[in-house]
Batch of 4 targets.
Target 1
Amino acid sequence: MRVAVLGGGVLGACAAYHLVRAGAEVVLLDRAHEGRATSAGAGIVSPWTTRYEGESLYRILLGGALAYPALVASLAEDGEHDLGYARVGTLCAPADPAVLDALEPLVRGRANEASIAGAVTRLTPREAKALWPPLAGDRAALHVEDGARVDGRRLSAALHRAIARRGGVLRNGLATLLVEGGRVRGVVLEGERIGADAVILAGGAWAPEVLAPLGIRMAVQPQRGQILHLRLEGRDTAHWPVLYPMTSHYLLTFEEGRVVVGATRESGAGFDYRATAGGLAEVLEAGLAIAPGLAHATIIETRIGFRPMPPDGRPLLGTVPRLPGLVIANGLGPSGLTASPFAGRIAAQLALGETPPISLAPYDPLRV
Ligand SMILES: Cc1cc2nc3c(=O)[nH]c(=O)nc-3n(C[C@H](O)[C@H](O)[C@H](O)COP(=O)(O)OP(=O)(O)OC[C@H]3O[C@@H](n4cnc5c(N)ncnc54)[C@H](O)[C@@H]3O)c2cc1C
């Protein structure tokens, strides 16, 4: 069985990795567009602390969070340890205690269902600040033991290396679908035909451009996210929990004093790959309101990514009856680093002709 995966972001890479481990022959094609979402993503993996509209999105995100420990273990077997993945916990610290009161039963209910969420504990402002020292001093919080974070760049690079080590072929360039006799027969990479029994289209926000020449409309739009990386000199931030103020902003940390402050959510900006004065001001203002202790941190990096946003929040995942041989995996929007280990495995299973573990009816990839 030969499968071509078009798109080497976290979703395509997870699908391709599952395929090589299942013994399939794999070609992974990636143009590495500026603004690849995976390269800008903050890295929060904590679905039980976020409100979602509808259970069908939550099911995919929970599946992703639960799949991480096995993915991390199998990458370790393949010699890949540098993923930036750590179960650091999550701290929900809204400015308004009433928001915390409303959130607590939801999070406790979900944590009970999800065997890896761990203990949920209500903290005083002083206890919360002990876990996240730059935090404002007046915020009570809810701590979820097993929230996690991951570095999208390091994870996808590790997946690419592991795929190659297991015999997968990685090719750089802009690919199109090869359609003959009413079915997808592979891809064309800058003029070169590459045959395959199935193609997984995981091209993120750019995927609609791959389908448009075939007269097929996929309702995915880019949403620009601008995000800042700071450094707290001399601080050991490797194990600080992910910090959610329960607004659209958030903070998380990695090793060596790196603090990530996110992020704008700009629909309608198209593929405009720019950091803007207004965007960065918004992110800094929100970050410092939550954590005034960051005022003296060093700004070390700005990242810009295009989230692949579906029309209604739900992922796009499934086959296309009018185009046999094609599997679509897309639309993970703001949560693709969380969802991809599960969504990528489902895409791989579809390409292999296997039955996925959940019904895909809510995720019809061509709904508008
Ligand atoms: C600022 C920001 C913060 C985020 N924070 C989080 C977070 O904390 N937690 C979380 O879970 N998620 C987060 N996300 C979301 C997450 O990053 C995305 O959902 C996820 O990375 C999408 O992965 P993808 O593989 O579908 O798309 P992408 O990563 O965009 O990859 C698509 C790839 O397909 C390639 N491609 C497209 N068309 C072609 C073609 N024709 N030929 C060859 N290659 C092609 C592109 O070059 C690209 O490399 C965040 C995103 C942003 C922007």
Target 2
Amino acid sequence: MLICPHCGKSLQKKDRAYVCAGRHSFDLSRQGYVNLLPVSARKTENPGDNAAMIACRRRFLSGGAYSPLREKVCEILQAFRPSSVLDCGCADGYYTEELAKRFPCVFGFDISRDAVRLAAATDKKAVYFVASSFRIPVSSASVDAVTRIFAPDAPEEFLRVLRRGGAFVEVLPGERHLSELKEILYETVRPNRVPSSVREGMKLLSEEELIYAFTPDADGRRDLYGMTPYAYKTGKSGEEKLAAAPVCPVTAHFVLRTYVRI
Ligand SMILES: C[S@@+](CC[C@H](N)C(=O)[O-])C[C@H]1O[C@@H](n2cnc3c(N)ncnc32)[C@H](O)[C@@H]1O
Ligand SMILES: [Zn+2]
């Protein structure tokens, strides 16, 4: 299933490396992931979420606030009984790890090496690699299911790697997602815009919303802030506003779309 990012030939695992027939070789890291992101494909030295954001994500998610979402994603996929699942933009593997407990061959990748390193260090079941969704080092029509959870959209690549009849599950922030957090940070708060569900080559089977409230403590809220783009947009002033605001319930609002590849 994995292919060489240089020549496109299939990759085989040999001892502590993945090798192709064209003699390109990619070492397994100490944590067990492989870096398949060519240097030429990196726009910056360390693309994707940085180590600090990933640490916030790991701490926040391990508190369980998004476990209903994780359960829902697994439940949706279970109906398709996939042998192989590819989790695109998997970050620290919160969803990937659970998928790997339920399905035989689970792969997770992210453009952030820090994220993949952490995922591979804790989850020994899924196969993790560093790559971009816009050039996935996976052969065409080889995957039974693809997930995109709050991660960049690469419609053509998702279509290419999925076999016919395969499932595509995406999770997007709903209109009210984290609205109370935004109310603390911004003067005016606009609802999140949910993009169109039209996807070429895919048929939408269902669209569901999952809405509930959770109440993070001060640390949990700081981590939640640190893993979102708000931290970049509002910086220190945002952190101060957040620290001064009383603990309050926050809305989790997810949109889950399930497609089949036609
Ligand atoms: C909002 S996070 C969501 C991560 C994870 N799916 C989750 O929900 O916990 C988005 C992730 O996409 C990754 N990312 C950004 N650009 C990417 C790309 N071109 N290819 C793959 N991953 C990318 C980031 O590094 C980050 O880990
Ligand atoms: Zn090669």
Target 3
Amino acid sequence: MEGTRSGGAGDGGFCVCVGCGHREAHLSGVPCRKARCPRCGKAMLREGSPHHQEVMTRRGTGVG
Ligand SMILES: [Zn+2]
């Protein structure tokens, strides 16, 4: 889909904590990495981002 969009590199989606797996809705204009997990205080990543997938792969011991 093409069209004019206001905002950054995509709106919507979720931020995921790499520590405990907590998910939160991504806030437009606020990078996930700037958000902190409310549960464990660790940095969060954009769900489905290359970085997130890399972390999941590294942690993946028997997952999927
Ligand atoms: Zn967490």
Target 4
Amino acid sequence: MLPENKMFEHRIVTAKCNAVDARSIESYKALGGYQALRRALQSQPADVVNQIKRSGLKGRGGAGFSTGLKLESVNRLDACPKYLVCNADEGEPGNFKDRYLMEHDPHQLLEGMIIGAYAAGATRGYIYIRGEYDQARDLMELAVKEAKAGHLLGNQISGTDFSFEVDILSGAGAYICGEEFALIESIEGKAGRPRNKPPYPTLSGVNNKPTVISNVETISNIPYIVLNGPDAFTAVGTPSSTGTRLVSLSGNVKKPGVYEVPFGTRIRDIVFSLGGGVPDERAIRMVQIGGASGPCIPPNLLDLKMDYAEFACQGLSMGSGAVIVIDERFDILDIVRLNMRFFKHESCGKCTPCREGIRQILRLLFKFKNGSALESDLELLQTLCHVMIRTSFCGLGQAAPTAVLSTIRYFRDEYIKGINNLNLTA
Ligand SMILES: Cc1cc2nc3c(=O)[nH]c(=O)nc-3n(C[C@H](O)[C@H](O)[C@H](O)COP(=O)(O)O)c2cc1C
Ligand code: SF4
């Protein structure tokens, strides 16, 4: 990790990443690790839930739902067993922050899971790790082993009545398995396919039992909140978006990498002050936020702040924190087609709007690219996107058209150029 740029970074979840030995629980403990767990175990589970609720922690996996509310829903249900699942599938192109956390501070994630399980009353847990993340899986397995040996995991943790077991599972390369129900199906040994919602996993998740499913970054924030109190957490960020956001910065920047910034940081500061700007001082054509399922914004929106409310005001979603910079050498339609090809490959095929809609969008995009589009095709393309958003069965199909719609909104001329203009080449 690069040295902290104190002007723009604020380290909570990455605070120990430079200092801790990821292969040693003792190293983690020497830096204050597992003190939050000790404190949590001295409180009632409902008090821990309240602390997390008061911190305003929202899920960092994309949807931004309150983590405290999820824990509370499961805590209130009388069922056995209850589950806590860590979503470490990280299949969204452009995202690599969860991998970073697991490879640099695996015990922080594990401690967050144990505290979360205590708060929710869960006794079984899973970490579902992207198949390609060999090193992360090895380190998480080692962390589980060390924590069990130290009675911080397993039966009667630290001599209390609370028991929690964690298993580690690997994905097999399907992006859809990051979707919470597809992931749950996969844990149950079935093909990863989304289920109808509601009921949500908090009511009926793994083996139809109440389940909290949360992202790696989300869970990694829990030890800090419990140890330092919710006020310390809300002191960072903005009223609508408390704490920090891990940004996976990639594309045409001088210093790509994982950066932790307070919510409220401008995208411009992420790209230029942290990322060093574009190599050879080329101009930015667009920045895609959140990954392949996120919006593409033009350079004149770079002052947009990483903040749920501000994004919502613009009708945009922040997704899981990827910032992908595309410079002037690239063609907008090529980038959008690349995104859609990814979704075509990853669509599970269960529902017609997504399975067929993506193919039709690709067909239309090709017409805009080679100049054979008709004026009516632009209307058709937008209608198709809206139908997909409204009728697709799961988040994959609902988010897949985001890049198309955002580029029609901000880069309309690129599409207009492709109407009745057959002299262009695809
Ligand atoms: C197609 C698809 C892929 C997803 N992939 C991931 C993923 O890799 N990691 C993740 O945390 N959330 C992913 N999500 C979001 C999860 O469904 C879920 O909202 C999230 O794990 C909840 O955790 P959070 O509350 O901490 O954000 C994905 C959603 C969809 C629709
Ligand atoms: S939206 Fe796509 S990924 Fe989701 S269920 Fe339908 S076909 Fe499968």
